[in-house]
Amino acid sequence: MQHFTQAEISYIEDRYQDFLKVLKGKFDEERLARIEKAFRFSNAAHDGIKRKSGEPFIIHPIAVAKIVAVDLGLGATSIVSALLHDVVEDTEYRLSDIENMFGERVARIVDGLTKLSGDYDSRHALTLKKMLMTLSDDVRVILIKIADRLHNMRTLDSMQPHKKIKIAAETLFLYVPLAHRLGLYAIKNELEDLSFKHKHPDEYNQILLMLHNQEEKRNYLVNEFIRPIVEKLKNEDFNCAVTHRLKTCYSIWRKMQKKSVTFNEVYDILAIRIVIKSVPEFSEKRQCFDVLSIVTDIYKPKPDRIRDWITTPKANGYESLHVTVMGPQGNWVEVQIRTDRMDDVAEHGFAAHYRYKDIRTFENELDPWIEQIRELLQSNDSDAFEFLDDFKLNLYSSEINVFTPKGDMISLPQGSTVIDLAYEIHTDLGNKCIGAKINLKLVPLSHVLQNGDQIEILTSENQVPKLEWLKFSNTAKARGKIKDAFKTEKAKHTEKGKQLVEDAFNRIKEPLSANNLKKLVAHYNMNNRDQLYSEVGVGFIDLGDIKEIIGKKSENKLVKYWNITFGGGNKAAEKEADHSKKIDQKKTFLLKETQDNTSFSLAKCCNPIPGDPVVGYLSNEEHVIIHKVDCPEVAKLLTNQGENIIRAEWTKFKRQSYLTRLNLEGFDRLGIVHEVTTVISKGLNINMRSVKFDTHDGIFKGDLFLYIHNAEDLKSLISRLKNIKGIENVSRVENLNE
Ligand code: MN
């Protein structure tokens, strides 16, 4: 082994001394000695090992320990564990060595971290399941793991490009929601921005530049806005820090995508934050509301935009008062009001509770959530990926609070339905549920609950769980319970589905060959044959169009879903296709119009068109499914089967048209429909398949299905539609099926 050079050794020493500076004054001699011992041991263990960047490896554990100490505010045991977190994984030392030197607690944490590590390409659905199990043992393991990922993301530049994209996708998929759920807002934001930067470098730099360009103007506006507030707060003897914060690049970009608006149309880039140094004489809540009243004396609040997360904190512990007010320049500005303690919790999450409450309270607050996870893990032995899907639903969504007839409050993810609530209260209640009564009105199982609803669940002894409930159940708990009820049925369904598939092949007189089965599996975006059988058996897939899928001429899905006008070019392509069709995973897959069109198909979930940034999913060695880079399905595939994701690029596409869906919204006026259709029919290379207009109370809505050649044509059409007087909103809808 090559030892480090003198220069490298003193570099390491410098970085370590920097780290020690941040610990100053926070730890006693005994703790500092433990930290020192951990560093010396880890440093010796990692001697001579370097990171991809060429830096000595030990710089990484030092950096992770610093995040653990500063950003997470954790104690000496966590810092020691962070310094040692890669020792068992990467060196010859064993867990027993760690236990002998640093005790059982540290050894258990390091063990948890070692079990969670592994190559980025491995099956991460399993990793999440493992992570959640660990979480119910010791939450510190997850916190250190998040710190580890944060440092890896900060130093991602030295990785190879395709690895970067995978790691960034996994971060968005797993770590961001976890950080969010644990209330680590600052870290969540940074992870999001770093992932965005690596997934979409051009867009990231563009937004950064635009933020920079408007900085001067923005600072001027901020000062104008806060000046009267600061004055009044001073007069009333409040000790407050008034600052402003910007939306992250990622959330600006998300908003631009979601609402199809330009950078300049994102109006809530800025938020004002007032942090009160609270005084013990009055309750924190009262002080926040006093400040709120000062702000709304100066600026008019938007009527329904006061959010009170102090009376009812978010499940991750977040407390704050949000109000949107009309600023002096005629813009809505969000103002966040909170005390210094609330601010600390908001930035640092549950870890901050350590600083304000004794550990028992801290654990009490985390407990209901961990208990929920434990229950889920026990009740749900379906495959890990399915579990992950269900669980993530609940990580992402914001929450609503509903009430039982007795007035007990129950928190549920937004979008939850009656059946979700029934299972949330009790499994039996779910199994027997037939509907509910909300404010004296009867509603079905699928009814979506609103914040503040008071709900009485109605049951019947004759009711049994039904599979179609899965279509409108949204909580992991309800979905798990419904699936459990059908587990015994699963084998039957698979058997039945297999029979149905065989029958279908007989009917169209085609052999049940491996190749034909592959086509079916790929067509329905299934993971494997068994999944296909079981979905057919349950009745989620009917094989009505099997002939078209298998059929020779139309085995390309394009024919069915897109209006294709082929020129003479594709005969040559057919000949070309006689050669080996095997796809080279290492090369960028080029999408050609003349290419043998069985080699790729366009995903139905996101319906990419030429010009959209895309990636390919290798569904078998001769077939690629093309998805938009941002398709949620891709995030899933990347974490689950990252090795099958390949780069893909459009080449020139001229002849084919692609079905695309647009939604319009605006204020109705005479002649608007005519203007919309004129703009479309005047557009080059655009054909209408169907248009549907609807007006209601003066609001105009349009649902258009158009054949279009590429993303550029689409973009220019959207901007022309937006110029029509009365049209407020034009958005592309990825799902063509609703
Ligand atoms: Mn590490």
Question: What topology emerges from the helices and strands here?
Answer:
Blueprint lengths: L5 H18 L5 H17 L13 H12 L5 H8 L3 H4 L4 H22 L7 H14 L1 H16 L6 H21 L3 H15 L1 H13 L1 H21 L4 E7 L2 H10 L11 E7 L7 H15 L2 E8 L12 E6 L5 E8 H9 L1 H7 L2 H21 L4 H13 L2 E5 L5 E5 L4 H8 L1 H5 L1 E6 L2 E3 L11 E5 L16 H32 L6 H10 L5 H10 L7 H5 L6 H5 L7 H8 L12 E3 L8 E3 L11 E7 L2 E6 L3 H10 L3 E6 L7 E10 L4 H11 L4 E10 L2 E10 L2 H12 L4 E7 L5
Parallel strand pairs: 2-5, 11-15, 12-14
Antiparallel strand pairs: 1-2, 3-4, 4-5, 6-7, 8-9, 8-10, 13-14, 13-15, 16-18, 16-19, 17-18
Helix pairs in contact: 1-3, 2-4, 3-4, 3-8, 4-6, 6-8, 7-8, 7-17, 7-18, 8-9, 8-10, 9-10, 9-27, 10-11, 11-13, 12-14, 15-16, 18-21, 19-21, 21-23
Q: What class would the helix/strand composition place it in?
A: alpha+beta
Give the % helix.
40-55%
CATH homology group of the largest domain: Beta-grasp domain
What is the alpha-carbon Rg in Å? 29 Å
User: How is the largest sheet built, in terms of strand order?
Assistant: 1-2-5-4-3
Q: How many runs of DSSP E, i.e. beta strands?
A: 19
**What is the first-to-last residue Cα distance?**
62 Å
CATH class of the largest domain: Alpha Beta
- Approximately how much beta-strand content do the residues carry? 15-25%
Low-confidence stretches: 358-364, 552-579
Number of helices: 29
Domain module tally: 4
Task: Based on the coordinates given, report the CATH architecture of the largest domain.
Answer: Roll
CATH topology of the largest domain: Ubiquitin-like (UB roll)
Largest sheet: 5 strands, mixed
